[in-house]
Amino acid sequence: MKRILMMVLRNLFMVPYAWIRLCYRAAHADKYSEEDMYAFLRWIDFHANRGGNVHIDAHGIDNLPEENGFMLFPNHQGLYDVLAIIEASPRPFAVVAKKEIANIPFLKQVFACMKAYMIDREDVRQAMEVIVNVTKEVKRGRNYLIFAEGTRSKNGNCVGSFKGGSFKAATKARCPIVPVALVDSFKPFDTNTIRPVTVQVHFLEPIYYEEYKDMKTTEIAERVQETIQKTIDSVA
């Protein structure tokens, strides 16, 4: 909470203006192109990060596929993760997130601007509908992010178990899978400090359909998890 307060205080003169614009755009998302909306979110994100003493150290941007219609699979460290990836990624993406965070102020508006999907992990039917819809949108060229751990890790830079079901939309869409390694992303919001912090975002080499078409989703999950953990271990 201390860092969030610092983000607000150091941007005090722009916060009311930015908040009004964010809320308006969240309520009228269909009026804006995805590129325009994403540029706006990155503008807010940039100022919030600078105000909060958070530096984003991005690596592997060239690993993002040249054509849209891919899926990002990062490890999940905390509430700050999506904000780290927004600044790091020049390519727009939407999010599939658990419904429990759907009403957190600011994140709620950001997800609305992204036209994100909130998934109910206890409602199998609703979860399947989300998978079907995401599959269709990825095929049409939208990019999506899913946290395959299902919930944030409580062990800092130790990656939790990736769930095979999280990769169903990717396999159905036959799209590139991009592992993303987050390092120290838990520190901005999940530690009680306002000291300067650097969050590393590593976009790793994509896994294309031809590479994973004969693999089970559990095998894909294991491969992505291991790749991310190896990267974290080598740089943390």
> Quick one: biggest sheet?
7 strands, mixed
The N- and C-terminal alpha carbons lie at a distance of 25 Å
* Envelope shape: globular
Share of helix, binned: 40-55%
Order of helices and strands: HHHEEHEHEHEHEHEHH
CATH architecture: 3-Layer(aba) Sandwich
Structural class: alpha/beta
CATH class: Alpha Beta
Q: Name the strands of the widest sheet in spatial order.
A: 1-7-6-2-5-3-4
With helices defined by DSSP (H or I, 4 residues minimum), what is the helix count?
10
**What is the number of E strands?**
7
Instruction: Tell me the radius of gyration.
Output: 17 Å
Examine the coordinates and then state which fold CATH places here, giving the name of the CATH topology. Answer: Glycerol-3-phosphate (1)-acyltransferase
Low-confidence blocks of residues? none
Beta-strand residue percentage: 5-15%
